Amino acid sequence: MENNSSDQQQQQQDQNSSSQGAGEQGQDQRVTMTQEQLDEFQTQIKLNEDYQNQLKQEIEEQMPFISELTELSVLKHEYQDNKFELCFDQLATRYSKVRRLRRDGNCFYRAFLFQVFEHFIHNPEDPQYEQILKVLVGSKKDLMDLGYDEIAIEDFYDLFLDEFKKLKTIAKAKAAEHLLKLLCNKEEAVYIIMFARFLAACYLKQNAIMFEGFVGDVAQFCMREVEQVDVECDQPQIIAITNYLGLGVEINSVRADGGIEVINLPEEGYSGFRAKLLFVPGHYDALYQ
């Protein structure tokens, strides 16, 4: 009996060793196959990155972040044979020029900030300037009260505040030149636009109850749609940043029937400066009379 038991134990050990060896061999095979697939996948990623970089470079060469003032008729020409072409005839009764924005997901923020900053360079005594300056000074505390780390927002806050304070020192004749340099600079512009996104997120979180019926979980919405670089701006973000700063915006939205829908935010009871923007699906440009 003892011999039989020993034989059985030996057979079981042999089987376990054999199974373990086969398993290790199978594992080696799987690792080799996975590595091959990974190498191929990385090659595809590299090719895709090269293509995306080439495409991005072509877009940058063709379209600056913010254009010089352009006749509105030029924009109309680009929409010829398009259902929105007739919209520009109606728009031309109130506006004649446009600053075009690159379609990079930041077009609203650039257009809005350009016109706001431009307004205060040309109107340094506007009482709204001091009101907004006070809001901006307190914005770091507002963000920290919501849980933002000071070290994470401080550089963005400092640059935005410094540039806003500088507006009163810029000669009116140099307004466009200064703002084109500021908001088209890849380094400074990123900080300024990112802080504008923080301000929008701040208002959304401070008033979460008002927005959660439209955007769901407000914190998740801010993380996904507001605080991410190059994510397009929708109406909740526009309401948020204009309300937080105490400013207005007039959005001229094209319609498929050839008309223009004018959306004013805030809708009523506001008499201060309004940025004037053109909206075609997925994109904003800045309008001028």
Automatic annotation (TrEMBL):
| Extent of Low complexity compositional bias | 1-20
Q: Which InterPro entries match?
A: OTU_dom, Papain-like_cys_pep_sf, Peptidase_C65_otubain, Peptidase_C65_otubain_sub1, Peptidase_C65_otubain_sub2
Kindly give the CDD domains that the UniProt entry links to this protein: Otubain_C65 (cd22749)
- Quick one: where's region Disordered? 1-35
- GO CC annotation: what is one? nucleus
Alphabetically sorted, this entry's keywords are: Hydrolase, Protease, Thiol protease, Ubl conjugation pathway
Q: What is its EC number?
A: 3.4.19.12
Q: Which residues form the OTU domain?
A: 96-289
* Substrates-to-products reaction catalysed: Thiol-dependent hydrolysis of ester, thioester, amide, peptide and isopeptide bonds formed by the C-terminal Gly of ubiquitin (a 76-residue protein attached to proteins as an intracellular targeting signal)
The answer, when asked if Kinase is one of the entry's keywords, is no
What is the protein named? ubiquitinyl hydrolase 1
Which GO terms of the molecular function aspect are on file?
cysteine-type deubiquitinase activity; ubiquitin binding
Per the record, the GO terms for biological process are: protein K48-linked deubiquitination; proteolysis
Query: Which spans does this entry mark as compositional bias, Polar residues?
Result: 26-35
Q: Does the keyword Plastid apply?
A: no
